[in-house]
Amino acid sequence: MPDLSPLYNLLAQLLPFDCLQARFMQQALAGLLLLAPMTAAMGILVVNFRMSFFADAISHSAFAGVALGLLLALDPDWTMPAFGLLVGLGIMLMQRSSNLSSDTVIGVFFSAMVAFGLAIVSRDRSLARDLQRFLYGDILTISDGQIIALMGLFLTLMTFQALSYNRLLYIGLNPTLARAHRVRVAALQYLFAGLLALIVMFAVQAVGVLLVTALLIVPAASARNFARSAGAMFWWTLLISLSSAVAGLVLSAQDWARTATGATVILVACGWFALSMLAVAHRREQPL
Fold first, then answer.
1. What is the mean pLDDT of residues 119-123?
2. pTM, two decimal places
3. Domain-by-domain residue ranges, the chain?
4. d(Cα 140, Cα 213) in Å, to the nearest integer?
5. Contact of 71 with 124, CB cutoff 8 Å
C-alpha cells in the first residue's frame, strides 16, 4: 500500500490548526477533501434530475450491506459499497423496464432494503452496536485503504464527468430526444447510477445514513440560489462543499463544541443555504 504520510504532512502545513496535527484528523481531512468534490459534482445532477429520493434509497441500503458483512464475517466497509452498487443498478434496471413511476420503483427498493437490513439485525442483537457507526457516520475512523479507494473513485468520477456531463444534462432534459441524437442513454444512466451509489456509500462513512442525502442536496441547492449560470453553479457547489467539509471538521474538534463531525459539516452547509436565501431575497428587492 502506498505511503500517504507526505499527503498528510502537506495537509497539516496548509491548514496549521492544532486539531489537525493528529494523524487520524489528517486522514479525516484527506477523506473529506476527496469526498466533497464528488458529492458536489453529483449533487448538481441529483438536484437537476430530482433524484434525491434515489440517493436516500441507496444510503438506507447501507443497513443491509453492513448487516450482511457482519453476518458473513466480512469487512462492512467493503460489503456496504458493493451492496449499494447492486441496489443502485437494480433501481435503474427496474426504472427502465417497468411502467411504474420512478418514485414508486425507488420506494419499493427503499422499503425492501430497510426491512432486509432490520430483519438481519433482529437475528443478532449484538449487530445493532456495530451499525451505529454507520447510522451516525464517523469520518475519524477512515483508513488509508479507504482513502486510496476514494482517490480511485475520484479519478473515475472526474473522467466520467468530463466526458459525459453535457450528455447527462441532455438526458435529464429529454431522454427520448437524446436517444434520437445517438446519445447512449442506457449506458450513461447505468454508469451514473453506479457511480452515485458508490459515492453515497462512501459518504455514509463521513456523515451517516441519516445525513448522507443532505451532503448531496444542500450544497447544490445553495449554489443554485447563488449562481446565475450552470457553470457558476458548479463552482459555487464546489466552494460550499469544500468549505463545509473543512470548517465542519475543525469546528467539531474544538473543546467548546465536541460535536459529531458529520452533523457539523451539514450544519455549516445549511448555514450556506441560509445565506443563499438571503441573496435570493436581496435580488428580488432590486429594481428591474
1. 76
2. 0.87
3. 5-210
4. 20
5. yes
Q: What is the dihedral of CA 137, 138, 141, 144, to 10 degrees?
A: 60
Please write the tens of the pLDDT for every residue from 14-33.
888 888 889 999 999 999 99
- With CA atoms as reference, report the closest residue to 64 among 129, 131, 137: 131
CB-CB contact of 27 with 8 (8 Å): yes
The pLDDT value given to residue 201: 87
Task: Give the number of other CB atoms < 10 A from CB of residue 160.
Answer: 17
58 Cβ contact list (under 8 Å, min separation 6): 84, 87, 88, 91, 196, 197, 200, 201
Q: How many CA atoms lie within 13 A of 106 on its CB side?
A: 17
Q: For domain 5-210, give the CATH superfamily.
A: ABC transporter involved in vitamin B12 uptake, BtuC (1.10.3470.10)
Place of cell 469546528: 251
Per mean pLDDT, which range of 117-131, 168-182, 246-260 is the poorest?
117-131
